[in-house]
């Protein structure tokens, strides 16, 4: 059955429609109030108009995460690195793109820059993403021994312990070190 109900304008903001079958609610609908989260996407300001390196990095991260239709994260990251060539998070983010594009030389240069900054005061950085990605670059470039060392350093970070250990197990297995590979896999599990 179709039921037409006239609702005064002053009551439309808090409108709720309920469809019932005797005492059981079948469907309930409430008008959604617009929120900031439901606002349509907008383009960020151009890199030259953004004040800080951190904000440039974060805008780039946002553009990459949501695969923005009209903007690339790279100009934001290039501007961040122009202002601070050693900004580790930006180096790691841009290196990730270079790694996915098989541009290993560029990725390695960026990752080594990040690792240098991250290990200035502490040989074991709190976030070992740069070391793990450096291991991936070295492995794909055919330098398994260097990759093994990078993965070993990355495994210090709990977030990277399993992925790095797994990569090390693969290298061990490829080198015929079966017992070591199995130990690494047990640790990963």
Helix and strand sequence: EEHHHHHHHH
- What is the number of helices? 8
- What low-confidence regions span 5 or more consecutive residues with pLDDT below 50? none
Radius of gyration (CA) equals 26 Å
Describe, in plain words, how this protein is organized in 3D.
This protein has helices at residues 53-65, 74-83, 88-100, 104-118, 129-140, 144-154, 158-174, 178-188, and strands spanning 16-21, 24-30. The chain is mostly helical and 189 residues long. The protein has a two-stranded antiparallel ribbon with strand order 1-2. A hairpin with a 2-residue loop joins β1 and β2. α2 (74-83) packs across α3 (88-100) and α3 (88-100) packs parallel to α5 (129-140). The radius of gyration is 26 Å and the shape is elongated. The model has no long low-confidence stretch (mean pLDDT 92).
């Amino acid at each position: 059955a179709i039921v037409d109900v006239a609702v005064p304008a002053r009551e439309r903001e808090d409108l709720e429609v309920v469809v019932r079958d005797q005492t059981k609610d079948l469907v309930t609908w409430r008008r959604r109030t617009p929120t900031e989260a439901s606002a349509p996407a907008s383009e960020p300001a151009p890199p030259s108009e953004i004040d800080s390196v951190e904000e440039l990095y974060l805008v780039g991260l946002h553009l990459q995460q949501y695969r923005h239709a009209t903007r690339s994260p790279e100009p934001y990251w290039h501007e961040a690195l122009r202002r601070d060539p050693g900004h580790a998070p930006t180096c790691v983010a841009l290196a990730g793109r270079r790694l996915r594009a098989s541009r290993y030389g560029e990725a390695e240069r960026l990752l080594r820059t990040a690792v240098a900054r991250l290990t200035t005061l502490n040989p074991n950085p709190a976030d070992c993403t740069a070391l793990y990605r450096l291991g991936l670059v070295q492995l794909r470039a055919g330098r398994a021994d260097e990759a093994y060392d990078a993965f070993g350093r990355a495994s210090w970070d709990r977030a990277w312990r399993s992925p790095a250990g797994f990569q090390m197990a693969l290298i061990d297995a490829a080198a015929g070190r079966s017992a070591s590979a199995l130990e690494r896999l047990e640790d990963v599990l």
